[in-house]
Amino acid sequence: MCIGVFIWKAHPLHPLILLSNRDEYHNRPTTPLSWWDDHHGHPIILGGRDDLAGGTWLACTSTGKLAFLTNVRELTSSSESSQPKKSRGDLPLRFLRSNKSVEEFADELVKEDGVEEYNGFNLIIADLRSMSMFYITNRPKSDGVTATPVSPGIHVLSNAMLDTPWPKALRLRKSFKSIMDRYGEGEVPLKELREEPLMKDSAKDDESKLPRIYPPEWEYQLSSIFVDTQTPLGRYGTRSTSTLIVKTNGEWTFSEKYIDNDSLWKEKTIIFNLAKETQNSI
Fold first, then answer.
1. pLDDT for 231-273, tens place per residue?
2. How far apart are CA 129 and CA 52, in angstroms?
C-alpha cells in the first residue's frame, strides 16, 4: 500500500510537485533512489528499485518522463491468489523505456490483452516535455483498463481510484493544499517541504470511517499516512518518502528518505536539468 499527493499544472513555477510514501514489508530487498545502469539504449531511469521483482513504484527519466504506481486494495480468492501474476512494478518501466507518448502508451494498455494477469493497479504516467499526464487503472474488473487525462490541480492517489475520498487521502490533500497556499506563487524549497510533517502523519482513523475491504484491525493499521506495524510476516510500513520538485526552467529535484538494510533512515537527493542534461548527486 502506498499514497501520494501532487500538484499538476497549477503553479507558475512548478509544473509538478509530488510527495509519495511507499509502504512495503521491511524485509523485501530494495535499492534506494539512484540512476539505473542497465538502460541498454533506453532512456536513463532514476528511481528506487524493487530487487525482488525488478520493477519500481516511482521513477523518471533523464528525458522528462515520469511514472508512479499504487496497488488497489481488494480481496482476492484463494484460487486467484494461487495464480501467478505479472509484477505491477514493471508497468512504470514499460512506459519509461518506451518511445511512446503518454497518450499512445495509455491507449496501448487499454487495448492490450492479458492485463488481467496483473493484480489491481493505479498508474500515473506523465511527460513534462509535452505537459501531458494520464491516470490508468484496471479496476473495477468489469471496466477492463481505463485511461483518463489528469486535470490541473491537486490530486491524491492511494489504494482506490484517483481522488477517492478516503479519510487519510482527504487529510493529506488538506495538509498539502495548506502548504501550497502558504507559498502562493513563490518557489517551494525542497528543504522546507521535506521537513513538513504531512507524510509522517501516523494518525489513524475511526473504524466507522474505514473502507471495510480488509479485516478491521489491518485496515486500522493502514489508515494512517505513515504506516508502521508488525505482522506475522514481519515489520510492514512506510519504507521511503519521496519528494519530486520540477521547475519550469527544466530543473528536477528528486529526493528520497529511506530505511536501509540496518533499519536506519537515510537521505539522498539527485538534481538534474532537462535542458542542460547535467546531473548532480547530494
1. 999 999 999 999 999 999 999 999 999 998 788 999 999 999 9
2. 32
Q: How far apart are CA 160 and CA 222, in angstroms?
A: 13
d(CA 23, CA 33): 15
For 125-128, which contacts have Cβ atoms below 8 Å and span 24 or more sequence positions? 125/65, 125/66, 125/67, 125/92, 125/95, 126/8, 126/16, 126/65, 126/66, 126/67, 126/102, 126/150, 127/64, 127/65, 127/66, 127/101, 127/102, 128/15, 128/16, 128/64, 128/65, 128/66, 128/246, 128/274
**190 CA to centre of own chain:** 18
Residue with cell 510537485: 17
In the block, cell 490508468 appears at: 136
Residue 235: is it exposed, middle or buried by C-beta count within 10 angstroms (0-12/13-18/19+)? middle
Per the DSSP assignment, residues forming a β-bridge with 217 are: none
Paired with 137 in beta bridges are 122, 146
Q: With a threshold of 0.70, does the pTM exceed it?
A: yes
CATH for the stretch 2-281: 3.60.60.10
Q: What is the mean pLDDT of residues 191-203?
A: 96
> What gap in Å lies between CA 272 and CA 266, rounded to an integer?
20
Task: Please measure the distance between the N-terminal and C-terminal CA atoms of the chain and give it in whole angstroms.
Answer: 28
Q: Which of 162, 144, 145 is nearest to 153 (CA)?
A: 162
Q: Give the Å distances, CA to CA, from 258 to 14, 19, 139, 183.
A: 25, 13, 30, 26
CB of 272 closer than 8 Å to CB of 278: yes
Longest dimension (CA), the chain: 53
**Which string of DSSP letters, residue by residue, matches 216-244?**
HHHHHHHTSSS-EEEETTEEEEEEEEEEE
